């Protein structure tokens, strides 16, 4: 486990896992996806989860974000023990503390850019969703594209809408799953600049799943997974400034 | 309220994008088909209710087949009630060489005591309220009668031995019966003319009535008095008695049409379920995303319910409006059978639309949508994560519960619900098995055809379950249409063909026994075929064994009818033609034995008679008892005089009755009939052909209405097709793109899609033709006892019609598969 790059004004933990594991049933019997994973992430820290395909990165992200339940161990997010909550309880925690950015953007095709960004605010029943969404979309450079539907936007523009949607609720933790996986290199770089820009400005904790070494290197630290276990990282990323 | 606006906005988006189009259309068909029938039957029902007061043309009516004592009139007048009398009977009216069957109504001063008569100046003219009754020597005839006889106002008609001049056209009389009209035309004359017609003779079929009206309290008091003082054979009718009787027949017709439209509802419900399943599948990702962003299960459920409610209310309103529009079509088709304007429908009929929409949505759309609540949020990371499937008990429980609830709402009779549900279930199962077999037979055919057809056939086989549902849906609608359009005519033709060419076409009744020889002589002199005169007398059943009729507990309506109405009896030495003994023995000829009776089987079964039971009849005031010694089967369609109850000789000979006969008369011999009636005015001639033509006319119109209702079934079948095409659209686009990438032209893909739907339609048509032929066979052999020769046209029309209908509809629905750019489809994935 790499912990040397921890950075933060305080040492308050916003995300923690204690010996979490995930097993699923398969035709060959029980299959362990994750085994005995423990970690802590502090407020404002950015962490890259890296590893080969099938190493369990996305599963770990799902467990940390409360999207799935571990079969062993326990997890905390913003002071809530996720493993003690039911699905609706975890949903409520996500609504207050979490934002997501996905590889395939996951915009609702029937909603405009503005409506997509408004959606998490409306789900959290926040007032003035429209103005807040408009403001964030302006910050990602899409002030002119508010009424466009996802199919009318390029891949990079769609991911910018997704980033605006992730940050509009001012989350404590942002989970990003291969956010540049579907984008060309130049667009990917711009998107990551945007992501880290937001992150730094708001002191949001960033948990990033990626294959991209250079992307991982921009994070404070790296958690490497191999066959469902955390292994020592081969190279320590430079502390981003 | 943010969640509400969110739910509504999401719904609006889905509506705009066409996601819900099929679901909405299918729901509209369901609501429209049921409300169309609901509105129509409600209007008929209300017409009956409104006319209830008029239906007797009085507040109280005393009815009898025998002469009614004048003492009742005096008592009523003493109590301050108004009184009027009338007689009616079947007869024949002549105008020159033309003749027509009529109901002759001889009305006295004061008629009608309730409601008003309307008459017109010309046939089919606009009726105006007319007071009074026809003056002696005058008559009011209805338009049909005048038209049929080729006469006009001012013409002279001969009825019995009397001539009357038609002075007005009878447009409406209060007691003509509401809803479905009487079969025969009406001629109204003054009672004072009745003796001159010489139609009233002992034993003639005269129905007599005394009408009473007055203040409600007086009427009630008089009614009580009348119940005590009336004769056994006299019947007292008040508004309360008359209305339910007619109501129940209107209700029965309504129930039948409702059940017919229920088939459309069930098919639409299947389409709704398919569309909802697709909708749910396409929303898995969005729901997972919303849960990822913090939406709770309750939120997802609430959103689903709110959306369903909005969809339900909207389709209920629009579908009900469509149903209202469609019912005017039914009313128009049946306008000849309905007299007068129908009142607007009741609020109940409007409720039916809401009930249908809610029941179909809850039973068929809710289960797949309920799954959305359980979508795992981690699906945003792994698309193969699905919500756990709903338990079969929930899915089928809700669907079956919904159907039963709707059935109960329609028929309000748990036993009938059981029968209908069982019947529907068995029919659907049978059709599904047949559809499955048909789909299976397609698999080996793929080898022998070109690439386009192979693609089409492969699609049918691969989407086996959907294919079966479509074949069943269309097959059901087509079966009924074929049955009504082709098989019905075939049956009628077969029946006609089964009758001998010289089958009697005229009945003659009311022949006085002493005139029997003279009538026979007249037949011989006029060159009419010789005929056997059969004795007939009217009597009332008073007891079976030692149980009087009042104490009998008869459940079936038919049995009550048999027991309560005046029976026609005869006696005979020998078993008549067209009669067959099925139990016991016919009495030996000439034997001097106890009184015996032979009873028709259906009569015996419905009343519960066995060999050895005794029947007691009141014959002209005397009780005659006889033992049942045989049961008979009778072929009624020989049109020979036949009877439910035949006495052995030596029992009834001394009672005054009449003679009856039937005879075949060629068209050129008809003038002899005019002469016959002039010579023997009391003889009533019944034209069987005219009667059959009238029956057929009613049947034609009723079946037209049923066909109309079953058009909704086809529309529902179309919805199932649309839903099936919609649910496979992405898959089809992907396949078509693959084929085109591999070098297939658009033409080949188009042919493949065409082949698929043509074959589906042909299979549905095949199933329908088999179904219609099967039902036709059962009807012919079991119900009508006819040799049935299947009509090859049923198969041709069924298969070609099905292929054409489904082929065209399917191609229209799936055309975007061919026109969609392949690259776009391949990018979107399979």
Structure notes:
The complex is a heterodimer of chains A (241) and B (830). Chain A has 241 residues and is α/β, with parallel strands linked by helices. Helix content of chain A is 32%, strand content 27%. Chain A contains 7 helices and 10 strands. Chain A has a 6-stranded mixed sheet with strand order 6-7-8-3-9-10. Chain A has a 4-stranded antiparallel sheet with strand order 2-1-4-5, with helices on one face. The longest helix of chain A is centred in the last third of the chain and has 18 residues, at 185-202. The two termini of chain B are 39 Å apart. Helix content of chain B is 55%, strand content 17%. Chain B has a 6-stranded mixed β-barrel with strand order 2-3-9-6-8-7. In chain B, strands 13-15-20-17-19-18 form a 6-stranded mixed beta barrel. Chain B is elongated and about 100 Å long.
What key attributes describe this structure?
heterodimer; A: 241 residues; alpha/beta; six-stranded mixed beta sheet; four-stranded antiparallel beta sheet; 10 strands; 27% strand; disordered N terminus; disordered C terminus; B: 830 residues; alpha+beta; six-stranded mixed beta barrel; six-stranded mixed barrel
Query: Widest sheet of chain A: strand order?
Result: 6-7-8-3-9-10
Gross morphology of chain B is: elongated
Order of helices and strands of chain A: EEEHEEHEHHHEHEHEE
What is the count of helical runs of chain A? 7
Name the shape of chain A in a single word.
globular
Largest interface: A-B, 29 and 30 residues
Low-confidence stretches of chain A at least 5 residues in length (pLDDT < 50)? Answer: 1-10, 235-241
What is the typical, i.e. mean, pLDDT of chain B? 82
Terminal Cα span of chain A? 21 Å
Helix content of chain A: 25-40%
Oligomer: heterodimer
């Amino acid at each position: 486990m790499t912990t040397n790059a921890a950075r933060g004004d305080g040492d308050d933990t916003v995300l923690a896992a204690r010996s979490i594991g995930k097993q699923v049933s398969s035709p060959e019997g029980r299959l362990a996806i994750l085994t005995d994973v423990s970690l802590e992430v502090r407020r404002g820290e950015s962490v890259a989860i890296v590893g080969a395909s099938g190493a369990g990165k996305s599963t770990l992200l799902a467990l940390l974000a409360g999207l799935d339940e571990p079969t062993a161990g326990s997890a905390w997010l913003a002071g809530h023990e996720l493993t003690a909550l039911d699905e609706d309880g975890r949903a409520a925690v996500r609504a207050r503390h979490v934002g997501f950015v996905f590889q395939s953007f996951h915009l609702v095709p029937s909603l405009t850019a503005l409506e997509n960004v408004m959606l998490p605010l409306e789900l959290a029943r926040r007032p003035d969703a429209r103005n807040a969404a408009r403001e964030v979309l302006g910050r990602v450079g899409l002030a002119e594209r508010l009424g466009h539907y996802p199919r009318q936007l390029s891949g990079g523009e769609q991911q910018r809408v997704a980033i605006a949607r992730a940050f509009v609720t001012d989350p404590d933790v942002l989970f990003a799953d291969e956010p540049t996986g579907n984008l060309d290199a130049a667009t990917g770089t711009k998107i990551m600049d945007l992501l880290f820009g937001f992150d730094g400005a708001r002191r949001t904790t960033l948990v990033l799943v990626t294959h991209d070494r250079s992307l991982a290197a921009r994070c404070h630290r790296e958690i490497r997974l191999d066959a469902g276990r955390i292994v020592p990282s081969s190279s320590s990323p430079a502390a981003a400034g | 309220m943010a969640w509400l606006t969110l739910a509504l906005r999401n719904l609006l988006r889905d509506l705009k994008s066409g996601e819900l189009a099929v679901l909405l259309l299918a729901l509209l068909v369901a609501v429209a088909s049921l409300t169309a029938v609901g509105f129509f039957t409600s209007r008929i029902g209300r017409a009956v209710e409104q006319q209830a007061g008029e239906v007797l043309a009085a507040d109280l009516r005393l009815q009898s087949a025998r002469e009614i004592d004048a003492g009742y009139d005096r008592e009523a007048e003493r109590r301050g009630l108004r009184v009027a009398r009338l007689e009616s009977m079947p007869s024949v009216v002549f105008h020159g060489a033309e003749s027509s069957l009529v109901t002759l109504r001889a009305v006295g001063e004061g008629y009608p005591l309730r409601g008003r008569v309307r008459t017109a100046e010309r046939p089919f003219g606009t009726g105006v309220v007319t007071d009074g009754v026809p003056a002696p020597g005058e008559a009011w005839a209805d338009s049909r009668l005048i038209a049929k006889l080729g006469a006009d106002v001012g013409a002279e008609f001969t009825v019995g031995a009397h001539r009357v001049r038609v002075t007005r056209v009878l447009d409406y009389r209060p007691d003509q019966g509401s809803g479905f009209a009487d079969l025969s035309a009406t001629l109204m004359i003054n009672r004072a003319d009745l003796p001159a017609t010489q139609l009233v003779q002992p034993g003639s079929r005269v129905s007599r009535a005394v009408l009473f009206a007055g203040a409600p309290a007086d009427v009630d008091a008089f009614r009580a008095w009348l119940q005590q003082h009336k004769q056994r054979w006299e019947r007292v009718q008040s508004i309360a008695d008359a209305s339910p009787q007619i109501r129940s027949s209107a209700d029965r017709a309504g129930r039948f049409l409702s059940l017919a439209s229920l088939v459309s509802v069930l098919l639409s419900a299947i389409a709704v379920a398919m569309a909802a399943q697709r909708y749910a599948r396409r929303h898995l990702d969005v729901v997972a995303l919303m849960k990822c962003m913090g939406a709770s299960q309750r939120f997802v459920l609430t959103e689903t319910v709110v959306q369903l409610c909005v969809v339900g209310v909207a389709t209920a309103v629009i579908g009900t409006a469509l149903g209202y529009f469609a019912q005017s079509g039914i009313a128009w088709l049946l306008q000849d059978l309905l007299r007068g304007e129908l009142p607007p429908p009741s609020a109940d009929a409007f409720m039916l639309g809401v009930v249908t929409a809610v029941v179909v949505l809850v039973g068929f759309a809710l289960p797949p949508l309920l799954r959305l609540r359980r979508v795992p949020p981690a699906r945003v990371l792994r698309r193969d994560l699905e919500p756990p499937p709903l338990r079969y008990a929930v899915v089928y429980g809700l669907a079956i519960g919904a159907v039963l609830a709707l059935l109960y709402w329609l028929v309000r009779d748990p036993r009938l619900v059981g029968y209908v549900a069982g019947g529907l279930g068995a029919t659907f199962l049978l059709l599904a098995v047949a559809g499955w077999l048909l789909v299976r037979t397609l698999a080996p055919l793929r080898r022998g055809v070109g690439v386009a057809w192979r693609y089409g056939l492969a699609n049918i086989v691969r989407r086996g379950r959907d294919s079966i549902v479509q074949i069943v849906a269309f097959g059901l609608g087509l079966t009924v249409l074929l049955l009504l359009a082709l098989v019905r005519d075939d049956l009628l033709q077969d029946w006609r063909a089964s009758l001998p060419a010289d089958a009697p076409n005229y009945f003659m009744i009311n022949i006085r026994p002493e005139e029997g020889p003279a009538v026979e002589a007249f037949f011989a002199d006029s060159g009419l075929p010789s005929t056997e005169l059969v004795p007939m007398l009217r009597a009332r059943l008073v007891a079976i064994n030692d149980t009087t009729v009042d104490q009998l507990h008869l459940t079936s309506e038919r049995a009550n009818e048999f027991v309560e109405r005046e029976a026609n009896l005869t006696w005979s030495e020998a078993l008549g033609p067209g009669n067959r003994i099925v139990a016991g023995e016919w009495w030996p000829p000439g034997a001097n034995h106890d009184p015996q009776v032979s009873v028709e089987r259906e009569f015996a079964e419905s009343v519960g008679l066995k060999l050895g039971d005794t029947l007691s009849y009141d014959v002209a005031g005397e009780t005659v008892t006889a033992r049942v010694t045989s049961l008979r089967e009778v072929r009624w369609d020989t049109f020979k005089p036949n009877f439910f109850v035949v006495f052995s000789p030596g029992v009834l000979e001394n009672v005054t009755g009449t003679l009856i006969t039937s005879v075949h008369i060629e068209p050129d011999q008809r003038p002899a009939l005019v002469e016959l009636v002039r010579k023997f005015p009391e003889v009533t001639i019944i034209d069987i052909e005219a009667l059959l033509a009238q029956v057929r006319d009613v049947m034609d119109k009723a079946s037209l209405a049923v066909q109309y209702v079953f058009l909704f079934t086809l529309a529902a079948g179309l919805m199932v097709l649309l839903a099936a095409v919609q649910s496979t659209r992405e898959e089809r686009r992907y396949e078509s793109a693959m084929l085109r990438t591999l070098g297939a032209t658009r033409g080949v893909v188009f042919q493949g899609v065409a082949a698929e739907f043509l074959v589906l339609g042909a299979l549905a048509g095949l199933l329908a033709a088999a179904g219609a032929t099967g039902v036709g066979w059962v009807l012919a052999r079991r119900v009508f006892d006819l040799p049935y020769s299947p009509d090859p046209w049923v198969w041709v029309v069924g298969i070609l019609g099905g292929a054409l209908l489904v082929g065209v509809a399917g191609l229209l629905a799936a055309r975007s598969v061919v026109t969609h750019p392949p690259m776009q489809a391949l990018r979107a994935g399979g």
